[in-house]
Specification:
By secondary structure, the chain is mainly alpha-helical. The protein is built from 8 helices and 2 strands. The protein folds into 2 domains: 93 residues, Rna Polymerase Sigma Factor, Chain: A; 79 residues, Arc Repressor Mutant, subunit A (Orthogonal Bundle).
Length: 192
């Protein structure tokens, strides 16, 4: 894979648009998936994915072939999403996924399901939805590491390199992130 990526990168740098298109097609799915899980909005994730590939095209000459291209592109993706979320937070946009904080503690927002019809979701479907929700509830530093570890199946070392975070911090955040997920699922009676 690494050799194939390097070949496509070199051809892209020489002006071969087809090679860059192949590179884009290879990574657009995982990049979009990371964006969607990070920002939790399909339109924003699509915009971020497009912005990312424009940046990658403009920065391709800075890629260091000593490291996997996937790590480089996922690092740019996570940084782009984190910047987007920080900017969004500064604009004080209230997310419906965040708990409401009051003087008596915190309260989860609850919404009636938008699904219409008598069909019931299967137990597996409910558990997967709860798991996705629990990942979405994680604070940013934990969420990106959990996504990179479990969705993209990157090693601790790759995550550490990609995010420029010490290996011990990656391990601690994965451990704490998993604990937060278990606590979230336990509180909702999904697991015991």
């Amino acid at each position: 894979m690494k050799k194939e990526d390097i070949k496509l990168i070199n051809r892209s740098l020489e002006g071969d648009e087809k090679s860059f298109e192949k590179l884009l097609n290879k990574y657009k799915g995982p990049v979009f998936s990371i964006c969607l899980r990070m920002v939790k909005n399909r339109d924003d994730a699509e915009d971020l994915s497009q912005d990312l590939f424009i940046r990658v095209f403009n920065m391709l000459d800075r890629y260091n072939p000593a490291f996997p291209f996937s790590s480089w592109i996922y690092r740019i993706t996570s940084n782009l999403c984190i910047d987007f979320l920080r900017k969004k937070k500064r604009n004080r946009v209230l997310s419906t996924d965040q708990p409401i904080k009051g003087k008596d503690g915190t309260m989860q927002r609850q919404f009636v399901s938008k699904e219409i019809g008598p069909e019931r979701k299967t137990e597996v479907s409910e558990k997967m939805k709860a798991l996705e929700e629990s990942i979405g509830m994680l604070p940013e530093p934990y969420r990106i590491i959990i996504i990179l570890r479990h969705q993209q199946q990157l090693s601790y070392e790759e995550i550490s390199d990609m995010l420029a975070v010490p290996l011990g911090t990656v391990k601690a955040r994965i451990h704490r992130g998993r604990k937060m997920i278990v606590d979230f699922l336990s509180d909702r009676g999904i697991i015991s």
